[in-house]
Amino acid sequence: MNDQLDAPAAPAPDAAPAVSTPGGVPSAAGPAGELRVALPDTAGLRTIGEARAAIDGIDAVLAALLERRVAVAGVVQRLKPVGGFAGRDAARERAIVEAMAAHAPSLGAERLARIMTAVIEAGLDAADESARA
Asked: Which residues of 21-37 are buried (b: 16+ CB within 10 A; e: fewer)?
């Protein structure tokens, strides 16, 4: 089983770069920032090296997605009447986690909440740093 992850196209005018991934996780940037990634078949991973290479490929794609998320969240911060940490919306953050939990049931909402808190706070830090630059 080789799943495919289709990330929705970002509305930004710049296209996402192709993501070069080690470990046989092919990916390509499509039109308007679309990213298509063939996810590795876990049943086909036979060695630690193969599994680690697959993780490295997934991590490279995850980093590209996080970079784009930070950029889009930065736009949100500029558009909100009160941005930054003071403008956090706990209900919105819970909704994000619940929606993600439907796609990642093995992680569940509690683990995803910890992950997304870190992602959101890192994005807010980046937006704040960018605004000061």
From this structure: bebebebeeeeebebeb
